[in-house]
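Table S5 (text form). Sequence records supplied for joint modeling of the two-component complex.
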Amino acid sequence: MSTYHWLLTFHITAAFFFVGGSVAAAVLNALAIRAERPSETAVLLRLVRRTLPVIFLGVGGTIVFGIALWRCQRYSIGAGWIWGSLVLWAIANALGGIGGRHQERARELAERLAAEGDASTPELKAILTDRKGNAVSWAAGLATLGILVLMVWKP
Amino acid sequence: MIAAAFSRPFWPLFLHVLGAMTLFGAVLAALILALAGQRRTTFLALLTAVPAWVVMRAGAQWIYTKEGKWPTNPTWISIGFDVADMGLIVLLLALGAAFWWRRGGSAHAARATAALSGIYIALLALAWLAMSGKWG
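The corresponding structure-token record, covering 291 residues in total, follows.
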């Protein structure tokens, strides 16, 4: 295999980790919102942490191998689709971090309620279905989708 | 932008890649849940993998119909199709084991669900490595 194909393989593998890990975290979060008891919600939100090493590997790998591909393929320094992807990459990571902190607050409350009789409260429901908190996670997902559009399209 | 995108083979490849990445994520979530002993939610996570498989496979067929002009398929295309089509059996077996586990709570079903999900993730990794490296 050529250097280009090796770099592309690592870049695409990292992209699978980034997007797939984010999808796994989203699935676990969606299941946590639907859970009936706070103990179930707490377990599911704790499991979101297991996706983080996969996401971090993907985040790091996409940027490192992406920049290596940029140099290898001698794409123009002014290639708009690459700069657009870099901006969306930064936005996705920033929003993902904010969304993660929102999930952590929900997990802490769910764990406290689970230890105090395992009955759900309006406060837990409110934090789990909070529009602002969930909108941030959705926006992170849309930014990630935007990167994928630019990477496939290469306008 | 949309018109320009339609003028190039954007949609088939985009849908294929998006479906494959979502499929990987859904099965990864199922594996994490299975290893944590979450029998009800493991089944639901694996269920979300099924529409992702459909999008991935439809995208693959769309690209192949438009661009697959080889007299015999290169290795990377063959691996892609084999993993997509035979992998579906593994995915459905994992789904069946998860359903069995959900209904009966058998430890064998739990182990089978985790093992089949792990095998399916390994197959998906093989496919994306072969396709991105254009093996053969």
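Note: Chain A is about 85% helix and 0% strand.
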